[in-house]
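User: Run a structure prediction on this.
Assistant: Running it now.
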Amino acid sequence: MAYWLNRFRQVLVFALLLLSWVEESQIRESLRRAAADRLRQNRMNAPGSIHDVLVVDDSPVYRKLVEQVLESQPFSLHFARNGKEALQAIEEFSPSIVVTDWMMPDFSGPELCQRIRANQSRPYTYIILMTSNTEKGNVVKGLQAGADDYLAKPFDPGEMLARIGVGRRIIDLNRELAAKSMKLEEAARTDPLTGLPNRRAIEEWAFKQLRGAARHGFSLWVVVADIDSFKTINDTFGHHAGDIVIKTFADYLKRCTRTSDICGRLGGDEFLLVMTHVEAAHIEATVNRFREQFAALSFPFQGQSVHVTSSFGIAGCAGKETPEFGGLVRKADQMLYEAKRGGRNTVRVCYPREQAENPQV
């Protein structure tokens, strides 16, 4: 009996050694295939920016296996042992790709997907869910929770590289779309001829400043400017000359505008300037300096030295009430009309006290 027990122990030890050798061989083969796949993927994928990849798995063995597969790829690798650590990492650096295990100590992979998707303020994150249960019902549950793809455990290195490669391409496309959307948004707020903000952009900026002026009690001034006799310039020297005058006026206006203020083009030969923290006693002199500088310029059109002037209307507010921006623009436009009627090349101001006493001004 003792003999057979001893023989059984020997067979058991041999079987365990054999199993260990097989597992080691499988890992070596997986790494060899991963190296070959990496070379193939590097050829297939165009070079791009480095992506942050977060791997979430409570198993140190699987974290190491994923690291060995991805370490030579153009990724910055990060690791988390549970869902809580993953959320902290996502809050810290917002990874492009998350590879997460289904089963974790605190909450599941699908729950992590749901929490990531709940925050819409971050850039899009591509999520790959790893699971040993590839039944259709589980896969559907993971995808419904917000995962973009899934990977069966134990994973094939080549398949992992391919699926992460898909994620990288999708993230790159999202970044391109976001960049183009930002450019379109910027274009929608920019005057194409002068490069200055348009009325929409100025109104958005001014709305915030008006609330600040009412809250803190500082002054805010709306200035409407118009190039005098602009139609005559176009009719006499052509539209190209008119464009030169508009762009020169815009350049001077931008140069004279503080970074805390904003200037833009309303359209045609009309411009809009919003200024803050200027005392009522100084606003007319401040705008007059710009008017004089522009009037001193000389434009060489068709062998002639042409001087162009401009007129300005100003309306302001000061105090704790928040006036409508459109109302301030209308008052400033009325002051511009007064400047034009008074002979052009001048400045007219409607001070806050005058507005209160005569709202029809």
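The first strand starts at residue 51 and ends at 56.
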